[in-house]
Amino acid sequence: MKVLVIGAGAREHAIVRSLVADTSVDAVIAAPGNPGIGHLALCEPLDEITDSATALAIAQRHDVDLVIVGPEVPLVAGMADVLRDGGFDVFGPSAAAARLEGSKAFAKEVMSAAEVPTGLAHLCTTPDEVADSMDALGTPYVIKDDGLAAGKGVVVTDDREAGLRHAAACLAKEGGQVVVEEFLDGPEVSLFVLSDGMTVLPLSPAQDFKRVGDDDAGPNTGGMGAYSPLDWAPAGLTADLVTRVAQPTVDEMRRRGTPFVGVLFIGLALTTRGPRVIEFNARFGDPETQVVLARLLTPLGTLLKAAATGRLDEYDTLRWSDEHAVTVVVAAHNYPGTPRTGDPLGGLDEVEGVPTAYVLHAGTALDADGTLVSSGGRVVSVVATGDDLAQARDRAYAAVALVELDGSHHRTDIALRASRGEVTVG
Asked: Residue 156 pLDDT > 90, yes or no?
């Protein structure tokens, strides 16, 4: 099997790494890929991540057996549709199904129809509607850009003026809308569920860390780290979420004539009233993918091929390592603002000396001299596994200490409370 992976981040690097370990996969092509992926796969240029015509041409040139579309932007833009129309098996939803991520208002509509437990929410198109909704739902205020925002379109604040400013910036966009939601208390969980349009198959839950600073300080980011599994999660949580959330959502999408084929990313809070869905994404999450795939023993290529071709019912269960996994994101100076790029990146070879640790590239590039430099906000994800969460965490941070990038920063508390047994469900 030859597999084409669309994307350039650490999520795609993790996917490629797992595909290479699948003995049924003969070759992996990535477009555009990154310097780290280039050590494992053939990288083809893709100047615009939404360039479906070029992606189709690459798939045709290599006569691939499966295409995996990693990021949300090309999915929402319809790349999976173009590739399917071109005769390829695709792991990734159609543009119509990817609206579950592309529009938070649409996602809430589907949740309502499928009777999925979620928070109260108001769709707003004017500043006055926003103000009224904030007053109605109370603090902390949760203000979400309705469209794609790279994980940075959400503001959670007790500062009413800050919430109104964020809403105004979202409304100022063409067709701008915001969703004002009630705040959901309790620890957050990320669950990936594979779907072939009818059957759903859950992966292992993870928890990520959205805020830029320790103790959840500062603005939201695309994610600064994650860990899996969740030893503190209630027994039966995953099965309950499949029954109450994933299967009803997939059934509702199929009923609408827009079957969801790909991975449904369920972000939820375990509130005092039970699980409540915060959001849906239409692709693997970053950085959760890095820790979930680090533990998955079932061959990934054959698994995603089955999802793309309506054969997930052939799988009863998946095989998982008993180890724990932690990933820590090393970010560029000034991320999540306008990150500084072009700084040399060193120390990555030394990471191999830390047991089980490895580096997944995200915002990296080779300059004109062939030097590895930073090219984005989240530069690398450092991953490590261990017999328990504390060991995985120690190894991950020992490896992070070896990464050399001027002005970089990272959180020092990824998985810390969980490793101490301090995460509880109310």
From this structure: no
φ, ψ at 5 (rounded to 5°): -110, 125
What digits encode the pLDDT tens for the residues 188-242?
Answer: 999 999 999 999 999 999 999 999 999 999 988 999 999 999 999 999 999 999 9
CA distances from 67 to 58, 163, 208, 360 (A): 10, 40, 27, 21
Tell me the residue type at 384. Answer: A
pLDDT at 418: 98
Instruction: Look at residue 398 in the predicted model and tell me its pLDDT.
Output: 98
The candidate with the shortest Cα–Cα distance to 381, out of 201, 154, 260, 222, is 222
19 CB-contact burial (10 Å; exposed 0-12 / middle 13-18 / buried 19+): buried
Q: How far does Cα 264 stand from its chain's mean position?
A: 10
Catalogue the E-assigned strands of 272-331.
Answer: 274-281, 324-331
Q: Residue 352: its pLDDT value, please?
A: 92
| pTM of the predicted structure, to 2 decimals | 0.93
- In degrees rounded to 5, what are phi and psi of residue 171? -70, -25
Q: Which residues contact 24 (CB under 8 A, 6 or more apart)?
A: 1, 299, 301, 302
Nearest to 18, CA basis, from 70, 79, 81:
70
Token pair, residue 304, equals 């995603």
- Reduced to 3 states, what is the DSSP secondary structure of residue 136? helix
